[in-house]
Amino acid sequence: MAHTKICTKCKNEFPATEEFFYKLIHGKFNLVSQCKKCMTQCSRNWDKENKDKLKKYRKNYYKNNKNKYRLTQNQKEELSARRKEYRINNPTYKDKECFTKDRRNQTLKRYNTTEKEVTELLKRQGGVCAICRKVETRKRKYDGKIFDFCIDHCHETSKVRGLLCSKCNAMIGQCKNNPEILLSGIKYLRKNN
């Protein structure tokens, strides 16, 4: 009969295997007390609550272990050759359309939103940029298609504020999301026109 183990966090019962629990050096089953799902969630919560601490730790670790992250010339050439061989053997790997779709999905996930919500937001904006009230005109080099609007968001909360054309998004980024810089720019333009 297979042994079972109850997660101390969610109180669910799972088979006492490494499929559901991380390994532990000691203990009855040599497994941690929380299931993998709960452990992952706890870890993510801790990371969110301790962003500064984690950033400082990672920066310090990288600074003290730079040699681990630097490839030798031989390793670089080897890696380049492996990548080239893989691309030759897998012609559909990361073709441009697939790459664009993957990137869009990552962006939506990062801002905790969906394609449907973005489409609704675009409808509310009348299909134009929230700042200049124009449609996006920038085109992709490889296929000539027009880029999607940029998802503008608060950098502290990741809350989506609106959809911007690439030029307005760059403007907001260049002023570091500081309205005072934008107001100063407006005053400057008015004074010198």
Largest sheet: 2 strands, antiparallel
Mean pLDDT: 86
Structural class by secondary-structure content: mainly alpha
Termini Cα gap:
84 Å
Number of helices: 8
Number of strands: 6
Proportion of helical residues: 40-55%
**Poorly predicted runs:** none
**What is the string of helix and strand elements?**
EEEEHHHHHHEEHH
In CATH, the architecture of the domain at 111-191 is 3-Layer(aba) Sandwich
Biggest sheet strand line-up: 1-2
Beta content comes to 5-15%
What would you say about this model in short?
The protein is mainly α and 193 residues long.
Describe this structure in words.
The chain is mainly alpha-helical and 193 residues long. Among the domains are: 4-48, no CATH class; 111-191, His-Me finger endonucleases (His-Me finger endonuclease fold, 3-Layer(aba) Sandwich), CATH 3.40.1800. Helix content is 50%, strand content 12%. It is built from eight helices and six strands; from the N terminus they run E-E-E-E-H-H-H-H-H-H-E-E-H-H. A two-stranded antiparallel sheet has the order 1-2. Strands 3-4 form a two-stranded antiparallel sheet. A hairpin with a 6-residue loop joins strand 5 (150-153) and strand 6. The longest helix has 17 residues, at 73-89. The model has no long low-confidence stretch (mean pLDDT 86).
